[in-house]
């Protein structure tokens, strides 16, 4: 027997319940992983609420974790009992002490990459890598705007873009978050609750705007993003932290010939070779100190509901990890 967070209905954090459940043997092509650290992401909130129909109820949230292989199912090669692994998957279920998972989605962890760091960065780190290098091709000299720069993906995007040689403008929701974003590498920080984002971007860029805008906030920031993007720029809307972006008349993109995309990381890593390549790029950036697992909050797995409350109310910075 082991424990997991299980929800039977959609709703607020209170629907996340700590329950005992029986363990089962891994099936064909699966391994049983005993989790040592579990990442918390905003997508978990979308799934909990039912905004993303990715989980059948009753179900267990969570997209990423690190742990140790406890048992290997039939047909599995390349993984062994006792091996350290990490994963990110479209199928929720990581908020658990133990889980059976497809072996092909497992990423072996190098000795110099810790479990907590991997759990904190697999989804957010690979998302940042793909946004910068596949969705866009950010390079030295580009001016970029990163919304919610104090958040988990925001800090990673800020540090990674700065390491490339970009001029980085970050938005934050309060003065208290400004210092951390500047420490991550932002050249300019805009407090969106007290400053007009589009006006400040125009001031900073002498009216040119930003070549790339990475917007994980959604409804509350989308209009400002449209105003702040440069001629021939690219607006990347990759999250809905404030709610879904309303329907958009694509004609509004025409005056500045703006590209608009709505990516997510999973199609980029659906192929195992792409998954391993992206993970290795992330691990290399971690080794170089370009990105770090700024785990500013940890919670016992049983207190996942509180982690959701704090994340949803924007009381957190950096990454959140649940500990079984």
From TrEMBL:
Keyword NADP set for record: yes
Keywords recorded for this protein, A-Z: NADP, Oxidoreductase
InterPro entries named among the record's database cross-references: ADH-like_C, ADH-like_N, ER, GroES-like_sf, NAD(P)-bd_dom_sf, QOR-like
Pfam families: ADH_N, ADH_zinc_N
Start and end residues of each Enoyl reductase (ER) domain: 11-322
Entries under Gene3D superfamilies matching the protein: Medium-chain alcohol dehydrogenases, catalytic domain (3.90.180.10), NAD(P)-binding Rossmann-like Domain (3.40.50.720)
PANTHER family listed in its UniProt record: QUINONE OXIDOREDUCTASE PIG3-RELATED, QUINONE OXIDOREDUCTASE-RELATED
Protein known as: Quinone oxidoreductase
Lineage, uppermost ranks: Bacteria, Pseudomonadati, Pseudomonadota, Alphaproteobacteria, Hyphomicrobiales
């Amino acid at each position: 027997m082991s424990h997991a967070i299980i929800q039977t209905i959609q709703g607020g954090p209170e629907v996340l319940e700590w329950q005992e459940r029986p363990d089962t043997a891994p099936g064909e092509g699966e391994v049983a992983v005993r989790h040592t650290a579990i990442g918390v992401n905003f997508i978990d909130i979308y799934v909990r609420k039912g905004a993303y129909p990715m989980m059948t109820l009753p179900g267990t949230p969570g997209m990423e974790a690190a742990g140790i292989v406890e048992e290997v199912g039939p047909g599995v090669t390349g993984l062994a009992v006792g091996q350290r692994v990490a994963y990110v998957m479209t199928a929720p279920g990581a908020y658990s002490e133990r889980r059976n998972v497809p072996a092909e989605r497992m990423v072996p962890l190098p000795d110099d990459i810790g479990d907590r760091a991997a759990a904190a960065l697999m989804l957010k780190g690979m998302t940042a890598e793909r946004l910068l290098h596949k969705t866009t091709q950010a390079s030295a000299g580009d001016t970029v705007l990163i919304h919610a720069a104090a958040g988990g993906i925001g800090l990673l995007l800020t540090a990674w873009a700065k390491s490339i040689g970009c001029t980085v403008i970050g938005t934050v929701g309060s003065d208290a978050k400004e210092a951390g974003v500047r420490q991550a590498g932002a050249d300019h920080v805009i407090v969106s609750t007290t400053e007009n984002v589009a006006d400040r971007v125009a001031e900073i860029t002498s009216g040119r705007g930003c070549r790339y805008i990475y917007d994980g906030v959604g409804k509350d920031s989308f209009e400002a993003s449209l105003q702040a993007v440069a001629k021939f720029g690219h607006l990347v809307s990759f999250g809905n932290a404030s709610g879904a972006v309303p329907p958009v008349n694509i004609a509004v993109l025409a005056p500045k010939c703006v590209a608009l995309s709505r990516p997510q990381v999973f199609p980029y890593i659906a192929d195992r070779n792409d998954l391993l390549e992206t993970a290795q790029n992330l691990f290399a950036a971690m080794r170089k100190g370009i990105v770090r697992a700024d785990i500013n909050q940890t919670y016992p797995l049983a207190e996942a509901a509180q982690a959701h409350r704090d994340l949803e109310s924007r009381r957190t910075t950096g990454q959140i990890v649940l500990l079984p």
